[in-house]
Amino acid sequence: MAPSAEDIRKTVTRYVEAVATGTVDDVLALYAEGATVEDPVGTEARTTEASLREFYGIIEPLTQTGELLTLKIAGNTAAFHFSLVTELGDKKVELAPIDVMTFDDDAKITSMKAVWSQEDMITR
Amino acid sequence: MAPSAEDIRKTVTRYVEAVATGTVDDVLALYAEGATVEDPVGTEARTTEASLREFYGIIEPLTQTGELLTLKIAGNTAAFHFSLVTELGDKKVELAPIDVMTFDDDAKITSMKAVWSQEDMITR
């Protein structure tokens, strides 16, 4: 049975929180086994748990604030615009991509593709 | 050669205009041959020009206003949040999906997937 929109919404909300303020384990717990991550789109997809751990491990120690801006759901797919603000000394770097995710029946993430480019990364 | 972000931006901007106020031919001119449309995601993909003509033909006669709200580009992919307001008598119906598109080297659309559900359609 396809996941409900409400379950997908919960997973996305937890994902933004976990990426911003959680641990790698918090993020990985939201992914299904065998999930793929292509971030940004056009780079080689990460297809192993080790490569996902490496990816999210980079941002784990950073001081970040996450905010879900827009979320659309259709079937087993979500597309959402969110903001991730990283504190770097007295500066803040904001990245606001649109992520596209698919989900399994338990609303675990089976694939993530992040659509953003350098111009979406703003230092202030 | 991959299309430039600027060319993709032009196609997306023209798409939102064409869907809102243009003709079916205006919209179809932005699509590559063999392009597919899945709107919303989870429904059967349209894979022929005739089925794309049928799809966009439904909204061609409507009085609509389109607005591009957020556009993210990565490689040959764009994800964008846009609003389409349709005037129905003294009421307005707003639909604001996130569309995900891929493009060929000439920045023509090779696939479109629209992520939205009934809750994204607001009557006012």
From TrEMBL, chains A, B:
This is Steroid delta-isomerase. One of its GO terms (molecular function) is isomerase activity. It holds the Pfam family SnoaL_2. The keyword Isomerase applies. The lineage of its organism: Bacteria, Bacillati, Actinomycetota, Actinomycetes, Mycobacteriales. Keywords: Isomerase. InterPro entries: NTF2-like_dom_sf (IPR032710), SnoaL-like (IPR037401). The keyword Isomerase applies. It comes from the Bacteria. It comes from Rhodococcus triatomae.
